[in-house]
Amino acid sequence: FNGGGYINHTLYWNSLVPPSKAHEPSDQLFDLIKRDFGGTDKLIENIKTLSADVQGSGWVWLGYNKCNDKLFLVPTENQDILAMKTGLIPLLGIDLWEHAYYLQYKNDRAAYVNSVLTILNWNFAKSVLLDNKKIGHEHT
């Protein structure tokens, strides 16, 4: 549990940028988002829906499957680690535990998620994606 919390929160903080540095996904990451979700707007809609569906404490992840070169949105419970549960590489994560939003947003998790979605670190996600594509190609 504690190890999962450490890993998940490390990924979470890397998933965010200051508002002044916010940007849209680009290059290979954008191409995969377009192919697998129909575009960034559709991905964002899916994240909002999935976040609303998570009951209690958990996370929503944008994960990458090296085997089939596809992106997936996946919820995890508590401090479960995405890679250990699914084999997916986490590109971005959103903390849905109350401690992440309660002081500022009270019970309005949706408002918190909307705010987080404006400061996602797409450069971090792209970097993780490209690093894992290189690793995947070394073994083929």
What does this structure look like?
Pfam families: Sod_Fe_C. Keywords: Metal-binding, Oxidoreductase. There is one protein chain. This protein is α+β, with helices and mostly antiparallel strands. The protein has a single domain, classed as Iron/manganese superoxide dismutase, C-terminal domain (minor pseudopilin epsh fold), CATH 3.55.40.20. It is 55% helix and 16% strand. The protein has a three-stranded antiparallel sheet. Helix 2 crosses helix 3 and helix 3 packs antiparallel against helix 6. The protein is globular, with a radius of gyration of 15 Å.
Strand order of the largest sheet: 2-1-3
Number of domains: 1
Total beta-strand segments: 3
Distance between the termini: 35 Å
SSE arrangement, N to C = HHHEEHEHHH
Structural class: alpha+beta
Instruction: Fill in the CATH topology.
Output: minor pseudopilin epsh fold
Roughly how many Å is the radius of gyration? 15 Å
The shape, in one word, is: globular
CATH architecture verdict: 3-Layer(bab) Sandwich
Briefly, what CATH class? Alpha Beta
Average pLDDT score: 92
Q: How is the main sheet built?
A: 3 strands, antiparallel
Q: Please report which band the strand proportion falls in: under 5%, 5-15%, 15-25%, 25-35%, 35-45% or over 45%.
A: 15-25%
Considering DSSP H and I runs of 4 or more, what fraction of the residues is helical? 55-70%
Stretches with pLDDT under 50, minimum 5 residues: none
